[in-house]
Structure formats: C-alpha cells, structure tokens
Amino acid sequence: MDKKSFTQHISQQYNEELEDILNQVMTMGGLVEQQLSDALVALIEGDNERGEHVVTNDYRVNAIEVELDEACTHILARRQPAASDLRLIMAVIKTITDLERIGDEAERIGRMALHLLDSDRRRSPMAAVESLGQHVRGMLRGALDSFARMDTAQAVRVAQEDIQADSQYEVIMRELMQYMQDYPKSVPRVMDVVWSVRALERIGDRARNICEYVVYFVRGKDVRHTSFEQMAQEATGDRH
Predict the structure, then answer these.
(1) Domains of the chain
(2) pLDDT tens for each residue of the chain, 240 residues long
(3) CA–CA distance, 103 with 139 (Å, rounded to integer)
(4) Residues 145/154, Cβ–Cβ less than 8 Å
(5) pTM above the 0.85 mark?
(6) Is the Cβ–Cβ distance between 211 and 156 less than 8 Å?
C-alpha cells in the first residue's frame, strides 16, 4: 500500500496504525482472490479437493474482517479522524464488507462444485462460465490494485467492466434456462450451476463497489447508484 494514499501525521503511531490497516486490507483481498481462484477450479474442473479447501477456509476471511473492523472502530474512537482520514476509514470498512461477501460467494461456488457430476458439467456451458469467472476475477484483482494505489482512473475502468460481466451472465442464464426447459429432469443438478453463475455475477458487482469506494476516498464523492459517465466525471473532475 502506497503511504501517499493517506495523510501523514505528526503522530508516527497514527501513521503506522493506518498503514497496518491498509496492508491488512490487501492481505484480506489476496486471500479472497485465492478463494475465488480455487472455487473456479473446483467448479470447472471438478477438483473436489479445491472445493473442500474453499469451504473450510472461509473462516479465515471472516476472521480478518472482524480484526479489521475492530481496528477501524479503535481509530474512530481514539483518533476521531476528520476529512480525508475519515473517508479513508469509511472506505476501508465498506471494502472489507464487500471482500467478506465475495468470500461468501466463493465459498458458495465451492459448495455447489462439490455437488456437480462430470455429466452435469458436460450439459452446462462451462466454457462460458469459466470465461465469466476469469472476467470477474480480473475485476477483483483490478479493484484491489486501484485500492492499493488509490487510482481513480483505474477504478473507473474496472467498474465499467461490470457491463461485460452482466452481459455474459445474461447469456449463460438464458442458455441454462432453455436447457432446463428442454430437459426437466436436469433441473436439480443444473440449478447448482445457476447458483454458481449468480454468485459470479454478484462478485462482479462487489468489485465495482470497491472501485466506487476508491473514488469516494480520493474525490470525496459518493458515486454509488450513478452512471458510469457520472462516475468518470467525479473521478477526474472533468465536467465537460
């Protein structure tokens, strides 16, 4: 984490507290990204060992969130941050909440993967599912990188990739719905794929959220529920 991301203070201890929190966010982000990667391998390749690993390691993500939440609460109570410091802490709190939920979605994918048979995978558009999975994984990585550098331009670019993720999601869902209509007996099994695809779409949404928090911290503007054009304007300050 770049120390320039936050205001340097006279109190060295305060600086170290902020730096430690930001480093922990990146540690949590790396763990969540690995969980997602393992979940995708389990889903696409039928690697049950990876699936079990994702399910049993979700507690690690939750533990880091609790630790970070306590650290942020401590700073709010003891340091009473204002202006950019307050925005930073709020951005961290929101980011770790989304990271924890991404971890939950990865754990859900891991569990669904354990239910699937090889025949289920052959019947499903797994190549398209893998493409969506790699896309949202790239969004997560990009969102974390933009957070680490507090890079609003990158944050906007990554957030805009959610359009493609939503498009991929809709195509896959139409194909899965049609297949279940044609083969009603497949519904119980194929629904596991449906829930996994839905989880991937939500991960894309969460990655976009993290990008919005970057803009909020750097520019002091809440860009939630705005268009991508408005988000870009707020990120750059360009009103033309």
Answers:
(1) 9-236 (1.20.58.220)
(2) 554 555 556 567 888 888 999 999 999 999 999 999 999 999 999 999 999 999 999 999 999 999 999 999 999 999 888 888 899 999 999 999 999 999 999 999 999 999 887 877 887 899 999 999 999 999 999 999 999 999 999 999 999 999 999 999 999 999 999 989 998 888 888 899 999 999 999 999 999 999 999 999 998 876 766 666 766 675 666 543
(3) 15
(4) yes
(5) yes
(6) yes
